[in-house]
Amino acid sequence: MPAVTMRNTVERLDKPSSYAMSKYKKRKRTDAHTPTTRPPSPDLEAALSAATTLYIGNLSFYTTEEQIHALFSKCGELKRLVMGLDRFTKTPCGFCFVEYYTHEDALDCLKYVGGTKLDERIIRCDLDEGFVEGRQYGRGKSGGQVRDEYREEFDPGRGGYGKGYREGEEGFGDEFAQGA
What we know:
Elements: H1 18-32, H2 44-48, E1 53-57, H3 65-72, E2 78-85, E3 92-100, H4 103-112, E4 117-118, E5 121-122, E6 124-128, H5 146-150, H6 163-167, H7 174-177
Antiparallel strand pairs: 1-3, 1-6, 2-3, 4-5
């Protein structure tokens, strides 16, 4: 009789964020082409096994620090809260970092708060390697998040239409920019 492999159908809650995974893959590619004098990059799984920081995404641009603190402090004592800001205007741009004192509190937050609604938006919570100064700013050309530059539909919680769509950039709803 052939061996039966069981596949887990429940998604892991403590999985790395897509940002952390892409950064890790980039680092791994460059490590293969760099001299051996540089220490190897730490394993992502090992870095996240004791992580106390969470990346929170899909926030409304109008969500305040007080609202975030009130929701996330239900899972444990917060060490630090860092709002994501537009690089140029220094206004909130839909993400933040929440740091707890313990790894267990961060995991509880993933279980109980991730996927819930805050300001009528379903928020996304992911374990993060830790906040580093400079990561609080959006990485898009316009200063905000990259994904907001490509959004074509109207989203009042994210500031309306996407920046590229509003500015009439090539490939971003030219009929809207021309007033058609």
